[in-house]
Design brief:
The protein is α/β, with parallel strands linked by helices. It contains eight helices and 17 strands. Helix content is 30%, strand content 28%. Strand 16 and strand 17 form a beta hairpin. Bound molecules: flavin-adenine dinucleotide. Flavin-adenine dinucleotide binds next to helix 1, helix 2, strand 11, strand 15 and helix 8.
């Protein structure tokens, strides 16, 4: 049984820890805060890339693989944890880009169908989850599966010898292991000198208080989206801001997101906003996700750079990294 340390308890770290535990590994997961409170908590929870033709083959492959298992995974997590991640296959109405040449080529290649609506194209296969609930369920589930979670502990450095990692130095002391898996999201380049640098791309979101507005599907237009939750609340996102680790939220962006919402659903103009927040997507300079063995250390693995699609890609990324470790 191999000893694995997973650094980072977002959706990528927890999903990786889950798959490793299922494969028989002894797993310790370390987070500098509490698990599931960073990007994975902040996101919209759409289980699809927004405009999939913008992304590389790996992102598309991991997305399709994940989409195929998400509903069953959420059922398993619900059973194991008692918390329902609220998977809903509501579909997505895309109002722009769907008739571009790139989009048409992608749909033909992946055999994806849509229904033409007056306002755009409806992709009925697209689902969403309520990410805070997904993360709570995941955390309980991995504890049930024997993963040891260490929170409020920062991993500062790797302990290395020749082409091997021996363990980690953390704020609470050193820990030795057979394999280290870096899932530190937007912070990954603070730990590793990656050739494809990972950096934070801030996104701001709002959620409306429960009102009378009924929305049955996700709406996507000009890179922004409106997402219905099962309890009737509605989320709107999001910005793309390359401003480092600055968590501040701006009043004008809040108003801007609100305006986007009521331009698409006029009844939202007078609905009160319940919360406004930001999160740091793990972006990479090449815009590619990294799910790989490290080039310098043979027992170091990297699962990061999921950018706008980490909730979506998490199950398949976790599967792939587990396969690499067990090769
Ligand atoms: C506004 C917004 C909307 C989004 N919408 C969607 C969407 O609809 N669909 C979708 O699929 N994706 C969406 N995303 C993207 C998605 O949220 C991310 O790709 C995903 O959460 C990345 O997961 P992660 O586990 O890598 O990162 P995180 O969730 O950020 O987790 C990284 C963890 O590592 C920990 N950590 C970092 N450094 C250290 C260290 N040195 N030691 C210990 N712990 C450390 C952090 O504390 C953190 O908990 C959105 C993101 C944002 C911000």
């Amino acid at each position: 049984m191999s000893d694995c340390i997973v650094v980072g308890g977002g959706v990528i770290g927890m999903m990786s820890a889950r798959m490793l535990a299922i494969s028989g590994a002894k797993v310790t997961l370390i987070d500098q805060r509490e698990c599931g409170h960073e990007s994975s908590w902040a996101g919209g929870g759409i289980i699809s890339p927004l405009y999939p033709w913008h992304y590389d083959d790996l992102t598309n492959d991991l997305s399709f693989e994940s989409q195929a298992v998400y509903e069953e995974l959420c059922d398993d997590l619900h059973r194991s944890s008692g918390i329902d991640p609220q998977y809903q296959k509501s579909g997505l109405l895309m109002m722009d880009e769907f008739d571009s040449t790139e989009a048409k080529m992608w749909m033909e290649r992946y055999k994806v169908d849509y229904q033409r609506h007056a306002d755009g194209a409806f992709f009925s296969h697209v689902a969403s989850v309520r990410n805070p609930r997904l993360l709570q369920a995941l955390k309980i589930d991995i504890i049930n599966k024997g993963v040891k979670i260490v929170e409020n502990t920062q991993v500062n450095q790797l302990i290395t010898k020749d082409d091997k990692v021996l363990g980690i130095h953390s704020s609470e002391g050193d820990l030795l292991c057979d394999n280290v898996i870096i899932c530190a999201g937007a912070w990954s380049s603070q730990l590793l000198n990656l050739s494809d640098r990972i950096f934070p791309m801030k996104g701001q979101m709002i959620i409306f208080k429960q009102g009378k507005v009924k929305l049955s599907h996700v709406i996507l237009d000009q890179g922004r989206y409106i997402i219905p939750r099962i309890d009737g609340k509605i989320l709107v996102g999001s910005t793309m801001e390359d401003v480092g680790f600055n968590r501040d939220v701006d009043e004008h962006i809040k108003n801007n997101l609100h305006e986007f919402a009521w331009q698409h659903i006029p009844m939202l103009e007078n609905v009160e906003i319940e919360k406004h927040w930001s999160g740091f997507r793990p972006a990479s300079e090449t815009e590619k996700v990294i799910v790989d063995r490290d080039k310098n250390y043979r027992n170091l693995f990297i699962n990061t750079g999921h950018f706008r699609n980490g909730i979506n890609m998490a199950p398949a990324s976790a599967n792939r990294i587990t396969q690499l470790i067990n090769e």
